[in-house]
Amino acid sequence: MDSRQLQTLLAVADTGSFAAAAEVVNLTASAVSQQMVALETELGTQIFDRSRRPPTLNAKGAEVVQSARAILQILSETRAAISGGRVSGTLNLGTLRTASMHLVPQALAEMRRSYPEMAFNLRVGISEDLMNDVVAGRLDAAVVAEHVGVPPTLQWTPFLHEPLLLVAPPDCAGVPAEQLIAARSFIRYHTNVPLAKQIETEIARLGITPTEVAVVNTMPSVIGCVHAGLGVAVVPQIALHDPAASGLAWQVFGTPPIHRRLGIVRRITSSRSEVLSGLHGALAARSRALGVGVPDES
């Protein structure tokens, strides 16, 4: 088994076929097939289901792919350490959409000052999917919400603790939240994420049935609808950094106030511990600067 075989295996896993992988690794499709047969022979087991066209990875193959990603990452970092080179390569990071607007990009900009030779592959998704990608090795880490079950092979470390806010057009300043939700049209944030569930749960607990004027699945669209005067909405505090939120009336939502926490999830054993610790530090620093850092529990 050599690194070229593992790189080819990852190309097959990422592209879905031998032919597409061949273009990535600059080989013929026949050469890719031969490498995969050689890898299976060395492993002593089949990692592809060849009854399908094109062949697909089986369960054992998926496990080998996960290990291959870790091995190649360790090799890359070991070469850099031995040569005295700086940390380089690509950090594969997942994030929730609400953190992708300002917080994560600002943290990555800070990271570039410490790791100028590092590049970033940023993927936006929902917490459950992102954690599955971390477990499988497709992502090095991900920014996810607290209200999600974390598998035992991962660790979740919080960096943000923010209140949810009721935002409304400027003429609504000073009106109690319950009165606004009952009297004004409501813009519902609807997507399969913990934040949306938190909002819906608290509105139900208040015993209010809002009159929905719009249902949208991105936070910038929610802010845009409120800015246009369509109605009121509940958003996380970091959403106020959207330029469209300037001038909107807002107040803390919930009795008692509802908060959410975000954290970075990563594998317990990771070859990128140093970089990921730096990333957590950058995210925590940006959160503190925005006034939503995790309180000191010491």
Automatic annotation (TrEMBL):
Chain segments annotated as coiled-coil in the UniProt record: none
DNA-binding in keyword set: yes
InterPro entries: LysR_HTH_N (IPR000847), LysR_subst-bd (IPR005119), WH-like_DNA-bd_sf (IPR036388), WH_DNA-bd_sf (IPR036390)
Pfam families: HTH_1 (PF00126), LysR_substrate (PF03466)
GO molecular function: DNA-binding transcription factor activity; transcription cis-regulatory region binding
Entry-linked SUPFAM superfamilies: Periplasmic binding protein-like II (SSF53850), Winged helix' DNA-binding domain (SSF46785)
Gene3D superfamilies, per the entry: Periplasmic binding protein-like II (3.40.190.10), Winged helix-like DNA-binding domain superfamily/Winged helix DNA-binding domain (1.10.10.10)
Top-rank lineage group of the source organism: Bacteria
HTH lysR-type domain segment(s): 1-58
Keywords from the named record: DNA-binding, Transcription, Transcription regulation
Family of this protein: Belongs to the LysR transcriptional regulatory family.
Full protein name: DNA-binding transcriptional regulator, LysR family
Species in which this protein is naturally found: Tranquillimonas rosea
Lineage: Bacteria, Pseudomonadati, Pseudomonadota, Alphaproteobacteria, Rhodobacterales
